[in-house]
What does this fold into?
Amino acid sequence: MSVENKGMLDFSSIKYERPDVDHFREVVQSTRLKLMSARDPEVAIAALIEYEKELSKFDTQVCLCNILHDLDTSNEFYADELDFYDEANDVSFDGYTICDIKEYEKILKEHRAFYDALLAEMAHVSWLGPVTPLVDVSKDFNPARARQSFFALQDCQIKKLNRFGIPAHYEYVKAGDGFIYLVNGTIAQCLSDEELKTVLSGKAVVDGYAAIEIARRGMASYLGCQPVPEAYRTSGETMAFAPYYKMRHQNNGSLPKLTEVAKDAVVLSDLKLVDRSTGETTYVAPGTILYKNAAGGTVVTRSLAVGVNRYNDEAPEIKMFLLEIFNRLEPGVIPFYVGEEQPVYFRCGKFDDGNGYLLALVNLSFDSLKNIPLCTENEVSSVEFLDGDGVYKPLKFKKCDGGVVIEKSVLSYEPVILRVR
It folds into this structure.
């Protein structure tokens, strides 16, 4: 007696075709470029959908090859094909292998409840803190003459704030939004004249390289000074409002110098040079100025540039100085920040219904955090964290001068989502 398996798929009738690894590499690279340059969420989503289709085609052929091999293990053709896929798994696709991609998808599936809960919360959150302008780096992209800014924007969030535990986010430039914009050299190059004027007519923090670009376009009047690429040396910077604090850094002589400072500009810091043999300190130039321009904007210009590496660039006093700058531009713009000297990535958003804040942090240090010190002037009544199952659980915390200390350890590169009320 035989049992007929009706409806069972005859895999031997399906045409197998080895996928083109080079084509898939191009798809990965193309998807990355589209995501980098997308100004519209729909464009990014469409790029990801197209990528998923190509990945599905690749996986389909891999699965079919395994099945056909198992149906006839004596067939050397499919045995050789399996060897091909073993080699293909190690082929780099813009820094990632197929194994890396699949491992990433596996992690997403294992923690789907966590990500679904987080996405649901983010739909009702407005992010807070200073803003890095989103720019279209592809508008004048030519693969034969690709400028450095296409691949590495000098982003203040990445270079500074994300390591200081100071919240910030990304937005497209639009008039009247009230954001404090962070404008650095390569970002300024990617902004149109109209976008730059919009930024400088509001509230902005401009670094040295961006100041040079702004002056080059004839907009130095928005800054209240004339930045010039004059070679000079400096060994430190003092805050005008706290001269007993010295911000430690070393200038390599290639940074712009702020000259012709407007009389009504406020000098926030001075660059100094210390003679190592005598210990004598000499004034060099203004380090930071705040200027209210004729367009109604308030712009802080720093001679130092984000794109230049300097010693002691993550010193605590520099963090304090940046917080003071943001508070002068807009009091209360930083409702929470992490009071920890270890590098910590931090984001802060307020729920649209006004019922609390959503905080996200990642410990960027190789040392774990024993607890989470949050600096805030808000009255905190409850703290919860989102666990791996997508459920919020209460955390203990202690109130202290200037904020709270949350009793939760954070491992190296561990992401933590908090709901604070």
Observations:
- DSSP finds ten helices and 21 strands in the chain.
- The CA atoms of residues 309 and 331 lie 30 Å apart.
- The mean pLDDT is 83.
- The two ends are 70 Å apart (CA to CA).
